[in-house]
Amino acid sequence: MNEVIPPYFALIFTSKLKENSKEYDQMAEKMYSLAKLQEGFFRF
Questions:
Q1: Which burial class, exposed, middle or buried, applies to 18 when counting CB atoms under 10 A from its CB (0-12, 13-18, 19+)?
Q2: Number of neighbouring beta carbons within 10 Å of residue 28
């Protein structure tokens, strides 16, 4: 595991779905994949 050096930042994202959406799931996976590429990404 990589050492995490302060300062720490958090991004919190919430949403309300009206129904299950295949497109939402696909976009959520894409967002997670991109987030993991960012320097300092720690975990989800």
A1: exposed
A2: 13
The mean pLDDT of 24-29, rounded to a whole number, is: 88
Alpha carbon 10 to chain centroid, angstroms: 10
16 near 7, Cβ under 8 Å? no
Predicted TM-score (pTM) above 0.70: no
What is the amino acid identity at position 20? N
Long-range contact set of residues 8-16: C-beta below 8 Å, sequence gap at least 24: 9/40
Average pLDDT over residues 27-38: 91
Structure tokens at 22: 């295949």
| Domain edges within the chain | 1-44
